[in-house]
Design goal:
alpha+beta, Heat Shock Protein 90, five-stranded antiparallel beta sheet, five-stranded mixed beta sheet, rod-shaped
């Protein structure tokens, strides 16, 4: 059964239970009080009649003709009957089946002795009172009414309750149906939207915002937030897949050239045994050069893979940046590059000293291959960060390439003819991001290339 129907029937069931309890209590109260109300009415009539008879002489009254009086057994109205001391009817306002109500002698005696008595006689509820007239005579007067009047009132009340209960149950059923439908409308929209997203794959769909701060509003916000997260994750996944596909294609392209050269030269050596020694030496040298190029490329790919895999988990502890810079400076002595170093402040970051040394060496090696004859490394303490700047006096980097230079296998037009595979700066960028920092390309003071590395300062000491 659908939730909407369950809510409607739950509402009807609760209303029915309350109504049933209410009707039972009211009916019990009505049944218990209806007879008392009738006795109270008849007692009042009998008392009034007895009081009136005290002001007249009953014996002088003419006896009524029963044939002309209404029948109390079919009438709903109460009637009175006057009896003498012997219990004989003297006068009455109605008869029962054509004769005056036959009052038992016991009731007459009890009323004469105590002043009142009551009983149900031939289906007539009767209240009896003693009377004394001006002549000193005594007797009793009876006020009577059919018992069925009370039963009819009770049956009428029960019929009213049945009609009232039916209306009272239909109203909450209809109301609960429409209210639950309105309350569940966002849930139906949620289900419909989910199905449509599943069929179309359109993760840009969202539920209309709900201003209400109820469960439906919270559900709507949670669903839209979930879609935002899924869309973002899907976009990142697609970008990653695209990047991996480009990476594989570029790696294949870079490896194809040296492999082609190696295969060609190896084939030449195998097929041309009569080739002169100089040609054979050149072929061997080409094989060695291309093999070294492949080895360097594979090493860079492995370095990049390790940097991607380590992430922030590869951070080991506080690192003295000045010491890392000094080690890179010593390593650069074998290069044909005039490298100057300037450091100031307490330069400590959390990270991996070997990875940071690799980052700086990539920047220095880039300056050696694509820059001029001079390069510099400066490092100083910033606000909660350590800033390292590597500059050279080369031809610089075009503004359009300043972000793309960190893409894998990217080489600007001016650098395509030079050495390298376009992986170094990508590795440097990955290492910087793994340390919670960043690297940016720009222009130095001498219009050469400038790379600024920003790393979060460490809270510890060396």
């Amino acid at each position: 059964m659908k939730i909407r129907w369950r809510l409607a029937w739950y509402g009807v069931g609760l209303t029915a239970a309350v109504l049933a309890l209410f009707i039972i209590l009211i009916t019990a109260l009505l049944v218990g009080s209806a007879g008392d109300d009738q006795d109270e009415l008849l007692a009042g009539i009998a008392d009034d009649a007895a009081s009136s008879l005290a002001t007249v002489v009953v014996g002088e009254a003419d006896q009524g003709n029963p044939l002309l009086l209404p029948d109390g057994s079919t009438s709903d109205q109460p009637f009175t009957t006057i009896y003498d001391e012997a219990g004989q009817p003297v006068h009455g306002t109605a008869t029962v089946d054509g004769v005056f109500l036959d009052l038992p002698a016991a009731l007459v005696v009890e009323a004469l002795d105590s002043g009142h008595s009551e009983a149900t006689i031939d289906g007539m509820r009767t209240q009896v009172r003693r009377w004394d007239d001006l002549a000193g005579e005594s007797g009793v007067v009876a006020a009577s009414q059919a018992v069925r009047v009370v039963d009819e009132q009770i049956q009428g009340a029960r019929g009213f309750f049945v009609v009232f209960a039916i209306i009272a149950l239909i109203a909450p059923l209809v109301g609960a149906w429409f209210m639950s439908g309105r309350a569940l409308a966002p849930v139906r929209l949620l289900a419909r939207t989910t199905d449509e997203i599943g069929e179309t794959g359109d993760l840009t769909r969202r539920l209309p915002p709900v201003e209400r701060e109820d469960e439906v509003g919270v559900l709507t916000k949670s669903f839209n937030s979930m879609l935002d997260t899924i869309e973002s994750a899907t976009s990142e996944r697609d970008l990653t897949i695209d990047a991996q596909q480009r990476f594989i294609a570029d790696a294949s392209h870079e490896l194809r050239s040296p492999l082609t050269s190696i295969l060609a030269n190896a084939g030449f050596l195998l097929e041309r045994h009569d080739a002169n020694p100089e040609d054979r030496l050149d072929a061997t040298e080409d094989i060695r050069t291309e093999a070294n190029r492949m080895s360097e490329l594979v090493e860079r790919l492995l370095t990049l893979a390790r940097a991607d895999a380590s992430g922030a988990a590869g951070l080991l502890g506080p690192v003295d940046v000045a010491g890392v810079i000094a080690s890179v400076q010593r390593r650069a002595r074998n290069l044909e590059l005039e490298l100057t170093v300037s450091t100031s402040g307490d330069l400590v970051v959390d990270g991996d000293a070997h990875a940071l040394a690799e980052l700086l060496w990539i920047l220095v090696d880039n300056a050696d291959k694509h820059g001029g004859a001079r390069a510099s490394i400066t490092a100083h303490q910033g606000v909660d960060e350590v800033i390292i700047v590597v500059t050279d006096n080369g031809h610089g980097i075009n503004e359009a390439d300043r972000e793309a230079v960190f893409d894998r296998f990217h080489r600007s037009d001016s650098a395509r003819s030079g050495p390298g595979h376009g992986l170094g700066l990508s590795i440097a960028d990955t290492i910087a991001r793994n340390h919670g920092g960043s690297i940016q390309a720009g222009v130095g003071e001498s219009d050469g290339a400038s790379f600024t590395v920003r790393l979060p300062a460490s809270g510890g000491n060396i």
